[in-house]
Design goal:
The protein has helices at residues 11-23, 34-43, 62-72, 87-95, 108-127, 161-171, 180-187, 197-210; strands at residues 2-7, 26-31, 50-54, 77-83, 100-104, 135-138, 141-144, 149-152, 155-157, 178-179, 220-223, 227-230. The protein is an alpha/beta fold.
Length: 232
C-alpha cells in the first residue's frame, strides 16, 4: 500500500489534499500541526513513503519537522507545501532535506504529479536490481551502488535519495557536462511538474557535504550556461 502522511494546519486544504491522494490509491494519515506530524511518523515507525509538510504550522514548523524526519530517514520522500511569498523557505526546505516543494494554490493534477514522482523514486530505490559494477572510485571518493553509500577518504557521507541519485549520475558520467534538464529528467523524471531551481539547490546541498570549500568547489563544478560536471 502506498502510504502518505499529510501535515497541514488549514483543515480545508488538508481535506482537499487527502481526498485527492485517496482517489489516487494512497493510504493517508493526517496531522494538523508539526509536532503531531512527528508523533504520527514515530508511532508508525516511519512506515510512510511520502510526507507532505506545510511550512507554516503551529507547535513546530514544517522546516523543523523536515529536518528531524531527514535525521531519522534518508529514504522517505518529503514535499514542502509553500506560499508564493515563501521563496527563502522553499530553498531552506530543500537545504534541510526536502525532495521537492509545491506552491499554493496548486491544482489536483500538479499535486498528484509531484507525489507520484516522489513515490516512484522511493519504490524504484527499494526494488532496484543489483548493478553490474557495485563500486565506483573517483579520487578520494568511493560510491557503493549496492549499499547506497558514499565515502570520502574512508569517511561516510550521509546522502538523501535525491543526493545519491545525483552523485550516481555524475560518477557514472565522470567529466561529462550535465545540463540541469539532464539531471532533472534523470532524478525527478521526465514528467516532473516543477522548476529547474530544485537542481541548483540540491547541488548546493551536495557541495556542503562533499567539498572542502563549498563556496569554491573543485569537484562538483558549474558549467556556465549549461549545468554541472564532476571532475577529479
Amino acid at each position: 500500500m502506498k502510504k502518505v502522511l499529510v501535515a497541514e494546519d488549514e483543515a480545508s486544504i488538508r481535506e482537499f489534499i487527502v481526498i485527492n491522494l485517496q482517489r489516487s490509491g494512497y493510504e493517508v494519515s493526517q496531522a494538523d500541526n508539526g509536532r503531531a506530524a512527528l508523533e504520527a511518523y514515530e508511532a508508525a515507525d516511519g512506515d510512510f513513503d511520502v510526507v507532505l509538510l506545510d511550512i507554516m504550522m503551529p507547535e513546530m514548523d514544517g522546516l523543523e519537522v523536515c529536518k528531524r524526519l531527514r535525521s531519522m530517514s534518508q529514504t522517505v520522500g518529503i514535499i514542502m507545501l509553500t506560499a508564493k511569498t515563501q521563496e527563502i523557505d522553499r530553498v531552506t526546505g530543500l537545504l534541510v532535506g526536502a525532495d521537492d516543494y509545491v506552491t499554493k494554490p496548486f491544482s489536483p493534477s500538479e499535486l498528484m504529479a509531484r507525489v507520484d514522482a516522489i513515490y516512484r523514486r522511493v519504490e524504484m530505490n527499494k526494488n532496484r536490481s543489483e548493478p553490474q559494477k557495485s563500486v565506483v572510485e573517483l579520487g578520494e571518493f568511493v560510491l557503493n551502488l549496492r549499499d547506497h553509500t558514499l565515502k570520502k577518504n574512508g569517511v561516510p557521507i550521509e546522502l538523501t535519495q535525491v543526493e545519491f541519485q545525483i552523485i550516481e549520475y555524475f560518477f557514472t558520467n565522470d567529466g561529462a557536462a550535465l545540463s540541469r534538464t539532464d539531471i532533472l529528467n534523470r532524478v525527478w523524471g521526465k514528467k516532473y511538474f516543477g522548476e529547474e531551481k530544485v537542481v541548483d539547490v540540491n547541488i548546493r546541498r551536495l557541495r556542503m557535504k562533499v567539498e572542502d570549500e563549498p563556496s569554491n568547489p573543485k569537484h562538483l563544478v558549474t558549467v556556465w550556461g549549461l549545468g554541472y560536471k564532476w571532475i577529479i
